[in-house]
Specification:
By secondary structure, the protein is α/β, with parallel strands linked by helices. Among the domains are: about 40 residues, no CATH class; about 150 residues, Vaccinia Virus protein VP39 (Rossmann fold, 3-Layer(aba) Sandwich), CATH 3.40.50. Helix content is about 40%, strand content about 20%. It has twelve helices and nine strands. Helix 5 links the parallel strand 1 and strand 2. About 0% of the residues have low confidence.
Length: about 300
């Protein structure tokens, strides 16, 4: 019979993985090894980019997109979404992505994306606004007049003018901002947003490593324990709860801060049993706030 790993064994394994993730010199070669022989799936990537657009249109609305300067935090490794938003009438896109590894500049991806978007009724043709095709026809560059890429940069410091952004947005990004960096990010978004501008940020509040079986497991650990096991890893969380994030944005100067589309863990009785095992930093908080698994943060600047 196989032996079940003890909690101490599990903690040791997580600590070793966390150490490996600490250095870019380790992380990027591992990414290259995983990518060897793996072809880029153009069809799937184009379809998923269109799905990303669908999600964002649902909470932003086409009226807010038209003639707006948009800022996306965590824009990913291509500017496909920016191209699609430009086709809907956005004036300019500013993309901020902390990861600078492996940007996708293949023309065949953007061509297929434009084809699928046109099939779905978007007013787009080849080459679309925001894309400059290189002479070889195989690669693209973004048009810096329409798309600004800030790759390898934190949202704590975005080199754009004060009040230059009409609307900022992100999906499943803010939970990965380090706790000590959340207030600087909120202040930077406040600086960038024009008066009357707004931000929409979908926040995922569950443990990304045990999402399905134990979505709140990460609340069992002290801050020191959690950082030792997960602090350097890509899917680690700041573990901030909904009320903390809201207050951070109020403190940053946003006049209107509220939450929409709050999703809570459906099995309240099971959650209450889990809560008894939470670390003391979380155990005695309001269960209705703790039970939230995702929400839309809305922050308006007057």
């Amino acid at each position: 019979m196989a032996h079940q790993p003890t909690p101490a064994m599990m903690e040791t394994k997580e600590m070793l993985l966390n150490l490996l993730a600490r250095s870019e010199r380790v992380r990027n070669p591992l990414r290259r090894i995983r990518g060897v022989g793996r072809a880029l799936d153009i069809e799937s990537l184009a379809a998923s980019t269109l799905d990303r657009l669908r999600v964002r249109r649902e909470f932003i609305g086409d009226d807010r997109i038209r003639d707006a300067v948009l800022l996306e935090i965590g824009s990913g490794r291509n500017c496909g979404l920016a191209v699609l938003l430009l086709s809907l009438g956005a004036r300019r896109l500013v993309n901020v992505e902390v990861d600078s590894y492996g940007f996708i500049a293949r023309a065949d991806f953007y061509r297929r994306l434009a084809e699928l978007a046109a099939e779905q009724g978007l007013p787009i043709s080849w080459p679309p606004r925001g894309i400059l095709v290189d002479p070889d026809g195989r690669t693209i560059r973004h048009d810096p007049e329409l798309i600004t890429l800030h790759l390898g940069r934190s949202a704590e410091s975005v080199p754009e003018p004060d009040g230059s952004i009409d609307l900022s947005f992100s999906v499943a990004v803010l939970e990965h901002v380090r706790r000590e960096a959340m207030a600087p990010v909120a202040r930077e978004l406040h600086r960038l947003t024009r008066r009357g501008g707004i931000g929409y940020h979908r926040v995922d509040l569950v443990d990304h490593y045990t999402r399905n079986e134990r979505p709140f497991r990460f609340l069992n650990f002290s801050e020191r324990q959690y950082q030792r096991m997960f602090g350097n890893r890509g899917s680690s969380s700041n573990r901030m709860r909904m009320d903390e994030i809201e207050q951070t944005y109020r403190n940053a100067g946003f006049a209107g801060v509220w939450s929409e589309d709050i999703q809570r863990y459906p099995d309240k009785a099971l959650f209450m049993r889990w809560q008894r095992d939470f670390h003391e930093d979380f155990r005695n908080r309001d269960p209705e706030s703790l039970r939230a698994i995702s929400f839309m943060l809305v922050a308006r600047k007057d």
